[in-house]
Amino acid sequence: MASDSFQYRALFEYKRERGDDISLQPGDLLTVPKASLVAAPGGLDYQDGDERSPKGWLHGTNERTKEKGDFPGTFVEYVGTVRVGPPPAPKSWPRPVPPTPGGPQPAGAAAASVIYNGLILLDHIRQPDKFTSCHGQCVVVISHISGTVDLFFTFVGPCTVMVVLYMRVFVVAVSQVRVIRLQTAATAAPTAKKSERKAARTLGIVIAVFLMCFCPYYYPAFAGEDTSNSLSYFAVVSWIMLINSCVNPLIYALFYPWFRKAIKLIFTLRILQPHSREAKIL
């Protein structure tokens, strides 16, 4: 006899701890019979809607691996209701649910950011009115020493890591392309060389745009001067630095022909024409 079951999607990886458990990978779909929720510890208090935010252990089937077993409810998100066959016999879970992965990480990152910025602005915190010339004025000045430290921690360091990682990615991409070229002989040689040039051009543009957006902001540190938000060009260089966050994804997207065709359809207003949905962009 068919019965209602609930479907969940795994958000985090879970490795089996006991023989009755099932392992999870992000994106796995899991089916849990409603009877399992009602029969679980605390299930006597079950009410409609509780399935949307499970707190304890669930017993169900991993649709990817077809394995049946237990998994923590805090590692999944509710998807919807499905109709399946009769559920297996319910069981209890006399053990605590493991903590959700990544729980304390945002708090730790926020604390580290507060501590770091507090050290950079230590002089300003000690004497907040030192650079203020009138009541209500808010002037923040970062000394040359603090600016130099900030330069290495937030610009030189990340830039070095980015260049090294991008070079490693490029080397791996080139090696994969060469393997494909050897397997397909001469017919793939022009395509392989084109892919190598495209990968190198993309990485070069990303790094160049990053440097162009961040270098103006760190000009005072390069020039051996104090950094202050009272400078006439401070707002401009700040916006240029922040623009890098939205430009970076566009650089990758613009190298896809289908993306360029879609943008062209939008800006030329051809998307408003009849049968525009039938346009071939792939």
Automatic annotation (TrEMBL):
Pfam families: 7tm_1. It comes from the Eukaryota. The keyword Membrane applies. It is a multi-pass membrane protein. PROSITE patterns: G_PROTEIN_RECEP_F1_2, SH3. It is found in: Cell membrane. Residues 3-81 form the SH3 domain. The chain crosses the membrane at residues 151-174, 202-219, 231-255. Residues 42-64 are annotated as: Disordered. InterPro entries: GPCR_Rhodpsn (IPR000276), GPCR_Rhodpsn_7TM (IPR017452), SH3-like_dom_sf (IPR036028), SH3_domain (IPR001452), TAAR (IPR050569). Keywords: Cell membrane, G-protein coupled receptor, Membrane, Receptor, SH3 domain, Transducer, Transmembrane, Transmembrane helix. Residues 134-252 form the G-protein coupled receptors family 1 profile domain. GO terms for molecular function: trace-amine receptor activity. SMART domains: SH3. GO terms for cellular component: plasma membrane. This is Trace amine-associated receptor 7c.
